[in-house]
TrEMBL record:
InterPro entries: Metalloenz_LuxS/M16, MPP/UQCRC_Complex, Pept_M16_N, Pept_M16_Zn_BS, Peptidase_M16_C. It comes from Sphingopyxis soli. Its cofactor is Zn(2+). This is Insulinase family protein. Residues 1-34 form the signal peptide.
Length: 981
């Protein structure tokens, strides 16, 4: 059974995000099947047995019969299937069984470097031309075309939209040529080495140091501890074309390849193309021996203290077992599900302690089978101040789990969550995108597992659940929390007394059992106070051009309802109320930054977080809060059977908000705990401050300082949010499978039953200012690595509903700008791993708030060069119209992305926010594709002339603390000088 990716357990928190500490939830296997638009012809029994043996050999897992498998005479394996989601798309994956653990000590980073070289082109394609060819096919670089290198594999990814026979054939030819015969010249190696060095530089810093030290400590004696995919500066600097070519020749062989194709086409044709372009591939010489990845070393040190200034306290406790290769059977699946339930039981108890106030801010456990190297159960802990107490408390919860069986009620609570997830996957199987199915297959191959259908998952779990008794779960807990090797890492901003020895002693102390199990409370929906008499529906109608119904109730609530079967068994809900960012003035203090976590976590009526978890256990009921410019939003993904209670809870939150203090206190502590990370890297500085800087320090987007965070109290939180929760207007969006519910009655009894709500009148002059023009860039500083910097430049544009075609045109202009910046800054000079250009056109503030932002992470020496390139590109876009080919290459992928997205409800819900009150919204939504298709070179030049005005341009540089722009320029001159480096 193939599991979906989980967060990497060894990368410590880059920031303290309270949202990660929400109620213990379900992170489960992705089912690997969707209904096929055209059923694949069934192979003969003999052919099926032969072809499927390579994935299902020895397995009794129910087959997903939509897949067809094959093995070419040269040993290359493939898996193909038809899938019509999204229509016209074909997803191709080429998995090579080689990653960073296949490198020798002189080749560190070569697998990843080769991935970059492969995507530059092949011996038969001019350097860099492959990207342009695929752009002409509507492919977006970096999302539709991408690659990934891990310790165990390298995967090439291509998602082709609007495929026809010619583009599919050409794409298969290009990709096969690149994998088989990449252009590994001295010039290409030099260029991509610069890009990878930029990637290495941008990822460098305390987080990488902590991760590297943690990996090396936890996996002592194993390649996993000393083979990071990125490589090292020394190994990359020494990389030569012959050495990389030798690595390719050794590992890139047909018997190490798996080609996966899923899409809107005939699987037989997919198989024919695989044979056509890979069938004559031959390996060079005898196959290499498989590396020995190693086993956990029980003699290695147990504890490691990592001192990193300005980093929060963090603990990693790992129970490590050797990885065992298993045949993926039903019994193996049973073991995996039971292990997952055991983890969920402990995570819920840990979260219960954190919510109630304890020694840690966040603590979670996760068991993983890592890189065919180790079977690890990892506890990640963020202590509040006393790391010894936090470690003891978490060990105490684990000790309880391995000593006393859980109750059947506790087991059922976690099993209910799994069952609900699997039922949801089954209901939505026909909407499973081909790209996810392809990724699931690649993942299954990598971890030696199989795939099954959504129905197969549901059926297996039903039987597995029946076996999850308290006795069985106790044995499972003992298995995943016991290990021959236990190691611990403490990250601390200052040296801890006793160092490693103190950590060893804390781990050696007997664990004292902590009973943090949840008490079962008698909760049901009847305990929610009556919202009011059902509201009166005063008008119904439709919006021109849309298959959606507009409803209006006597209390002023409006609703836009789309009853469709795009996602069977699913209903998407979005309740928009109040005036969002517009509810506060640009210069007024506010607590907008507190709402994302604490507002929903503070409870509803008679219920706090734990009661709400119990009330919604095993059901599709959510409460996700966000802030838009013109409204606050509570969104959910529900199902028809749960919709009535879903809407009761949302209405209850607005009518009977609860104001528990614990979530607010936890939010404050979390922000303060992670505060010193805010300037640890250039990226951290940008993430925290950029939106506020672009808005000329508008308080609605400016990040709170430490004093503001420390001053947060539950009383202040309530005073700010209570009137906003009570404010109007209310607009509801219901999109999905509504054929079995009376949605008018549900709305009338919930939001329609609320009393009329006052609107918080937006302060006068509601516009958004833009950063003041400067000639010399503003300089901000980070406290990270001296080799890291960032450069940004931006121009104000506009916003609102008056010119939707210009909003689309600026997206295309941004794509063209980005393409040129990529070619010059990355492909030619290797100065940046990922330059980016973004057009932001908000609709909540008419005529203001928009900008076009150009930026990149860089070395300090390249900052001035970045500004020069950006100026050149902007000036050229103003002076000359773009070519028809350049316009098509950049507008085409945007148009394809929109075409794919427009087949789903999420796209239309986003575009139609506010449509029940402003007719311009629906008109703009309906014209998006036409607007994109109608953009001309003259439009691009007009927009460039209107907005890329040097007199309004604003620029910013993020430099290492103590460095000036003059210092950075001097570094560039030193490198450019003869003999410079």
């Amino acid at each position: 059974m193939s599991y979906s990716p989980r967060p990497a357990p060894l990368s410590l928190l880059a920031s303290i995000l309270i949202s990660c500490a929400a109620a213990a939830g379900v992170l489960l296997p992705s089912v690997a099947s969707a209904q096929t638009a055209v059923p694949a012809p069934a192979p003969s029994p003999a052919a099926a047995a032969k072809n499927e043996s390579w994935l299902y050999a020895g397995s009794d897992i129910p087959r997903d019969t939509a897949w067809q498998f094959g093995v070419l005479p040269n040993g290359l394996r493939y898996a193909v299937r038809n899938n019509g989601v999204p229509p016209g798309q074909v997803s191709i994956r080429v998995r090579m069984d080689v990653g960073s653990m296949f490198e020798n000590p002189k080749e560190l980073g070569f697998a990843h470097l080769l991935e970059h070289l492969t995507f530059r082109g092949s011996e038969h394609i001019p350097d860099g031309e492959a990207k342009r060819i695929w752009q002409r096919f509507g492919v977006t670089f970096g999302s539709d075309s991408n690659a990934q290198t891990t310790p165990t594999q390298t995967v090439y990814q291509l998602d082709l939209p609007s495929v026809n026979a010619a583009t599919l054939d050409e794409s298969m030819k290009l990709l096969a040529g690149m994998v088989r015969e990449p252009r590994i010249s001295d010039a290409a190696v030099t260029a991509e080495r610069g890009v990878v060095m930029s990637e290495l530089r941008e990822s460098d810093g305390p987080q990488k140091r902590i991760a590297d030290i943690t990996n090396a400590h936890l996996f002592a004696g194993q390649l996993l501890g000393k083979r990071p995919p990125i490589g090292t500066v020394a190994s990359l600097a020494a990389a030569s074309a012959p050495a990389v070519q030798a690595f390719h020749d050794r590992w890139y062989r047909p018997e190490r390849a798996v080609v996966v194709i899923v899409g809107d086409g005939d699987p037989a044709e997919f198989a024919r193309l695989i044979a056509k372009y890979y069938g004559d591939w031959r390996g060079d010489g005898p196959p290499p021996a498989q590396p020995d990845f190693g086993k956990p070393d029980p003699k290695a040190p147990v504890a490691k203290v990592v001192v990193e200034p300005n980093q929060p306290l963090a603990l990693t406790l790992a129970m490590i077992r050797p990885w065992v290769k298993r045949v993926d059977t039903v019994e193996n699946t049973r073991r995996l599900y039971l292990e997952f339930i055991a983890q969920a039981l402990v995570n819920r108890r840990l979260e219960n302690r954190a919510r109630a106030g304890g020694s840690y801010l966040v603590a979670t456990v996760e068991q993983q089978y890592l890189s065919r190297s180790a079977d690890v159960t990892m506890a990640q802990i963020v202590p509040l101040d006393n790391w010894k107490a936090a470690l003891a408390d978490v060990r105490g919860v684990i000790a309880d789990a391995v000593t006393t069986p859980p109750s059947q009620a506790d087991i059922d609570r976690e099993a209910n969550e799994i069952e609900a997830f699997l039922a949801k996957e089954l209901e939505n199987a026909r909407n499973e995108p081909g790209s996810r199915l392809a990724d699931d297959m690649v993942r299954a191959v990598d971890i030696n597992e199989t795939v099954t259908s959504p129905q197969g998952q549901v059926d297996m779990f039903k039987a597995i659940r029946a076996s999850a008794t308290p006795k069985v779960m106790l044995a499972t807990s003992k298995a995943i929390f016991g290990a021959p090797v236990t190691r611990v890492v403490l990250t601390t901003p200052t040296p801890t007394p006793g160092g490693d020895a103190a950590l060893v002693a804390a781990l050696a102390a007997p664990a004292k059992i902590r009973d943090d199990r949840l008490a079962t409370a008698a909760v049901d929906m009847s305990q929610l106070p009556a919202i009011g008499k059902p509201g009166t529906l005063v008008s119904t109608g439709s919006l021109p051009g849309l298959r959606a119904e507009r409803l209006e109730f006597a209390n002023g609530v409006t609703a836009l309802v789309s009853n469709n079967r795009v996602e069977p068994g699913k209903v998407r809900v979005n309740v928009r109320f109040g005036t969002g960012n517009r509810s506060v003035a640009a210069d007024a203090p506010n607590l907008l930054w507190t709402g994302d976590y604490a507002l929903m976590a503070s409870g509803i009526g008679p219920w706090g977080q734990n009661e709400l978890d119990q009330l919604t256990n095993g059901r599709q009921i959510q409460m996700n809060f966000s802030i838009d410019d013109d409204a606050f939003e509570i969104a959910a993904e529900s199902k028809p059977a749960d919709l009535a209670d879903q809407m009761k809870l949302i209405a209850g939150k607005l009518a009977f908000p609860r104001w528990d203090a614990a979530p607010v206190d936890r939010l404050r502590v979390g922000y303060l705990t992670g505060y010193d990370l805010n300037d640890a890297t250039p990226n951290a500085v940008l993430d925290r401050n950029m939106r506020g800087w672009l808005a000329n320090d508008d308080a609605r987007w400016a990040a709170p300082d430490k004093a503001q965070i420390a001053a947060l109290t539950p009383a202040a939180f309530r005073a700010f949010w209570e009137p906003r929760l009570a404010s109007g207007p209310i607009e509801v969006q219901l999109f999905g499978d509504l054929s079995t519910v009376d949605y008018k009655k549900i709305l009338a009894e919930t939001l329609g039953a609320l009393p009329a709500r006052p609107t918080i009148a937006p302060p006068a002059g509601q516009t958004v200012a833009f950063a003041k023009h400067n000639v010399t860039p503003v300089v901000a500083y980070h406290r990270g690595e001296t080799g890291q910097a960032a450069a940004m430049t931006a121009w104000p544009t506009s916003g609102g509903r008056a010119a939707p075609r210009d909003a689309q045109g600026l997206d295309v202009l941004a794509a063209i700008f980005n393409d040129r910046l990529f070619d010059r800054l990355r492909a030619e000079q290797g100065a940046s791993y990922g330059p980016a250009v973004d057009s932001h056109w908000p609709t909540g503030f008419e005529g203001s708030g928009g900008y076009l932002l150009v930026g990149s992470l860089l070395a300090p020496k390249d900052v001035d060069r970045f500004y020069g390139i950006a100026r050149d590109i902007a000036a050229d876009l103003v002076a000359r119209p773009v070519s028809a080919d350049e316009l098509a290459r950049n507008a085409g992928p945007i148009r394809e992305q929109i075409a794919r997205a427009s087949t789903g409800n999420v796209y239309w819900m986003f575009l139609l926010e506010g449509a029940t009150r402003d007719p311009r919204v629906a008109a703009a939504a309906l014209s998006v594709e036409q607007d994109i298709s109608g953009i001309t070179p003259a439009d691009i030049q007009r927009l460039a002339r209107e907005y890329l005005v040097p007199a309004r341009q604003w620029s910013l540089a993020i430099l290492p603390k103590g460095m000036t722009l003059a210092d950075a320029a001097a570094l560039d001159r030193a490198v450019a000088a003869p003999g410079g480096r």
